[in-house]
Amino acid sequence: MPHPIMFDDDDPVLGRVRDIARAFPESTEVIAHGRPTFRCGRVFCHYGGSIRGGERREQSILFHPDPAEADALRADPRVFVPAYLGPAGWLGLDLSGGPDPSGDAPDWDEVGELIDASYRRIAPARLVRQLDQR
Question: Which SUPFAM superfamilies did the record assign (predicted)?
């Protein structure tokens, strides 16, 4: 039985995430488990996720951080450990302004940097070289 679609294709936050993620070499978008995923062979970014126990974060990205930055990221109130992927080192960033006390809009430069770091951890070396040559 296929998963139900758990996102709104007209979501402007998803639109910005798509613009960032699709700009990477050989990036493709695939719907998996009812949510958009961005891949370069393997998944480097998910849109939307949940915290273990079921609390959903509809407007969020799941990413594989640079290990040197993971502890600092975990201290950010917008960052969460996602269900299923968390034990493999993935983190989530809530883009809704919900957990962030300021309620500010996402910092798109920061989002781009997190997706870039995730891409570099997941992508084959030839694609990282291609990215660096841009």
Answer: YjbR-like
d(CA 42, CA 122): 7
HEC sequence for the chain:
CCCCCCCCCCCHHHHHHHHHHCCCCCCEEEEECCEEEEECCCEEEEEEEEECCCCEEEEEEEECCCHHHHHHHHCCCCEECECCCHHHCCEEEECCCCCCCCCCCCCHHHHHHHHHHHHHHHCCHHHHHHHHCC
- Average pLDDT score over the chain: 94
For residues 91 and 80, the answer to whether their CB atoms sit within 8 Å is yes
C-alpha distances in angstroms, 33 versus 15, 52, 94, 127? Answer: 19, 16, 19, 26
Tens of pLDDT, residues 9-51: 999 999 999 999 999 999 999 999 999 999 999 999 999 999 9
Q: What's the pLDDT score for residue 103?
A: 61
